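User: Can you predict the 3D structure for this chain?
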Amino acid sequence: MKKKYNIAGIKIELNYHYDDFLKGNIESYLMHEDEACDYEIQVFLRDEIEKPEGSTNSKMNPYIIFGEKQRIIYALNANGDVKELITHSNDYRYTKIEMNPSLLKNPAEVEYVMLGVTFLEIALRCGFLPIHAAAILYRDEAILFSAPSQTGKSTHAKIWVNNFEGAELLNDDKPLLKLVDNQIIVYSSPFSGKTSINQNRHAPLKSIIFLRQGLTNIVSPMTEEGKIENLMRNILRPDDADLWDQVLDKIAKLMHQIPIYQIEATMEIEAAIAVHDMIYKGDYYEN
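Assistant: Here is the predicted structure, written as structure tokens:
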């Protein structure tokens, strides 16, 4: 399926094969086929993929070959066969993804993950900061719940959606942050984890909540050290040294403009009420 999409203002042409994670998910980002795109990602299914030539400093799977104009990333199975290969120009304007479905347990999931990873790298280069979090819309603003996988961020977000009037899920896994007119805006994309829950919308960022499983439901502001540690752990960290200055600048603005809290959460409604009371200083909530 070769179509063009406008994702958070990034105009990109995608050619992919499996609908498992994108059907009913990516259509709201469609743009007119006559419009020009700045980026292109093509996926090819191969019966066999030749191992690329060139030296690599990688000591484990996947392996990376750096070239003057492009970078190659490839992964091998236990028999040394190439099961996935990504070739992209150094500016990410064009990316070719090759997959051997016969060597993959779930080709549809692998394709979705590789499309998502490539898109997030492009987003970094377009001034966005991808973050591992569940994002909700509430009172025309975005609230992010961030935590390691399988520790409750999606559960906490759903508690808000189910109990607070007007709360909606914006992106279940990888929202994008961008500084626009000195305001931090949260954007969504069709790459939102295995649940594929997202909306093609954006909103100003109200607050970030870092969750840990616990018993107390005590919400507290984070120290500067805690903010840096948790943000660095949960953002997409660039492997391009030239991008680090931009990323660190965005982190500094996040820390000084946005209230950031932590909670030892029980994943019950009491945890959501405690977070709500901290963000809105005891202002009413509706259920």
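The chain has five helices and 16 strands. The longest helix spans residues 107-125.
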